[in-house]
Amino acid sequence: MAKKVIITVAQTGAFHGKNVNLNLPEQPHEIVASAYDCYNAGASIVHIHTRDKEGKSSCDTNTFAEINSGIRSKCNMIIQNSTAPATRPGSKADDGLAALALPPELLPDMCSLDCSLISTSWQDLTWIYEWTRPWLIKTAARMKELGIKPELECFNPVTVEEVFGVLKPAGVLNDPISLTFVMGMDKVSQASISYSEENLNFMIGKLPKNEFVNFSTLAIGANQLQGTVLTLLKGGNVRVGMEDNVYYRKGELAKSNAQLVERMVRIIRELDMEVATPAEAREILKLKKR
């Protein structure tokens, strides 16, 4: 049986916006419309950040509610809300937990959970987020209580060890683990690993050999396509979208997030694999439909 590959689309992000690609969706109606196009193109999971009316990064419960409701009214995509704080002065770790305050019918299926203490410097701002072990255990426990599966974002090999050496033994994670290697953030975030084939192989080598783990790679910028395809060849799932790379190829801006999904669908099929539907992805990840 051909491997079923889960495609996640990360449409927006918390950093760049329409200033680098006018096709990047920022407002709720744009994000919902783009998600539906990506669903029709073959994406099963949509990773969501929110922006304010001026297009600046935000973590607003009402905006998450509008987006989650809009997507669910159109399709059965798996909704994965970000818990990364907004890139604003004074942001703290808890500021990113807006999605956990949604009413039950609008809660996401998944939330990202960054598993490392990170110092990020962007433009003239610097943040040090308090993603400590106690904070991670508390937040993962709250997600478990709400029926939300964390997408565990690992910025370096040590954070992979944290997942399986600290979080899982604490009893706050349900199998199967879903994990993303975040690579290429090293220019703006201390303690973040750069992308290379060698580094990716090392990160994959940190995964336990005796259990099934859903993993993918979030490679930033010019390395995005290579990192994604290499992860696919090594048994992983894939993530695409303008949060990670606003270009389709060198010098050519992406026309839409759906265009990036469509290319990945072609690659998956050319490699004699199959694209997982949202229903199949739910089964793989053991997610209940909300």
From TrEMBL:
Protein keywords: Metal-binding, Transferase, Zinc
Signal peptide (from-to): none
Keyword Transferase: yes
Cofactor(s) this protein cannot do without: Zn(2+)
Organism: Papillibacter cinnamivorans DSM 12816
InterPro entries: Aldolase_TIM, BKACE
Protein name: 3-keto-5-aminohexanoate cleavage enzyme
Molecular function (Gene Ontology), one example: metal ion binding
UniProt-listed Pfam families: BKACE
